[in-house]
Each structure stands twice: as structure tokens, then as C-alpha cells.
Specification:
- This protein is α/β, with parallel strands linked by helices.
- The protein is built from two helices and eight strands; from the N terminus they run βαββββαβββ.
- It has two domains: 58 residues, 2,3-Dihydroxybiphenyl 1,2-Dioxygenase, domain 1 (Roll), CATH 3.10.180; 60 residues, 2,3-Dihydroxybiphenyl 1,2-Dioxygenase, domain 1, CATH 3.10.180.
- Helices cover 17% and strands 34% of the residues.
Length: 125
Amino acid sequence: MYEGIHHVSLLVTDIKRAKHFYGHILGMKESPARPDFDFPGAWYDLGHTQIHLIVHEKGKTLRGTTELDTRDGHLAIRVNDIEALITTLKSHNVELLDKPDNATEWHQVFVTDPDGNLIEFNAVK
């Protein structure tokens, strides 16, 4: 019955700053398919899944911190070259928590976006 996750929506406070992080730093491709909603946002394509950035002043899901806490709510994105990602993140001075050896079968790297949304990137070891 379930086919997978279509998209994950993340609240952001500054769409220009968020688009710089997701588009420029992470290199995600912005989708032109986003309708002309009456609020700012952006959609990014990641294979068969999307990330939707939404500016919503009344939203309640902002963490309120950029602390790297791996047990906090987060989304996980599988990548095919974790070392290239780490190099990119470091070249942009993005704070990261690198966990190549952990209880899972994959190498994990945790970051937050400028609004504190926690993101895990992982790759098969």
C-alpha cells in the first residue's frame, strides 16, 4: 500500500538563507514544479523524494537550536559519496558530527541547516 515518502517539509525563517544552504552549499536541485503559493518556500528534488522548505511564522516545529543532537528528530538522506559531502561541508565551514563507526551499517554525518533542522547524511560502509 505504501510506496515511500513523497516529501518532507521543513520550516525555515529566511528563505534566501535556506536556499543558499540547500542549493549552493549542499548542491540540491531546486524543483521548478512548486506552485505559486501565497507564502515563501522552495522545493528540492532528491531522487524520488522532495524536501519542501516553508516559511511559516506560526509554525511550531523549529527546534530552536543548531546543537548537533543525533537523538533529536531529524531526516536522513542517503548519499553515494560521503567523503565528498564531508569535504564540501568543511569547505563551507558547516559544523558537522562525523560518525563513521557506529551501531548502524552505514557511515553517518549530522548537520543542521541555518534554522536548526537536523539532517543526517549516510552511506553504506
